[in-house]
Amino acid sequence: MSNFAATTRSALRHCETAWLFTESDFKTLIFPVMVFATVVSPRPKLLALACTVCWLWFHLFQFNISNQSHSADEDIVNAPWRPLPSGRINVEDSYTLRWALLVFCLGFSSLLSFNVFTTSGVFTVFMILHDDLRLGHHPIFRNLCNVAAYVTAGVGCSLILYLILAGESSLDGTSIKAFSCSVLVILLTIHAQDAADVSSDELC
């Protein structure tokens, strides 16, 4: 029984760590992307929404581990409750988890359709450009990478909803126009979310 209790506590701790990596982005990415994808897709059902949220959350998890692994020092000031600055996981383990999630997300996407797999691949490319190639430190390229992340996340969610509800993993003309408009809106407004990080950016 003690081994079972220890295993349960360890599993719950890992789940809490995963939650802390993504908690702050539910209101900035999960909710708006899901609302947008639901509006431009066929009338959703619970199973379709659950599968779509799962896909989106794992991609957000992948992106946030990558991003937070490169900004651990900044987060000591800005978000000390996150897993890295709070010591719940070290940087080396976060890198390992990040690459494992990359493979998992591509594999998960490949099980759904080629278009979803391609969207996941594009999302991954922009994540690498943003974090590993440090384009996230350039104000213009940072915004472009963030816009690409939002749009590919939305496109991926819509493709999954179309696949489950309509039997085909492709977007109609209305959806494509809607995503095109969203690119401009996000590009002109996404920089506002950096206002909360000004104090930590000055220290770093």
What characteristics describe this protein?
about 200 residues, single chain, globular, mainly alpha
How far apart the termini lie comes to 47 Å
Record field, number of beta strands: 0
Mean pLDDT: 87
Largest sheet, if any? Answer: none
How many individual helices? 9
Commentary on this structure:
α2 crosses α7. Helix content is 77%, strand content 0%. It is globular and about 50 Å long. The termini are far apart. It is built from 9 helices and no strands.
Offer a quick outline of the entry:
The chain has 204 residues and is mainly α.
Topology:
Elements lengths: L1 H21 L3 H15 L5 H24 L2 H7 L12 H22 L1 H18 L7 H28 L6 H17 L8 H6 L1
Helix pairs in contact: 2-3, 2-7, 3-5, 3-6, 3-7, 5-6, 6-7, 7-8
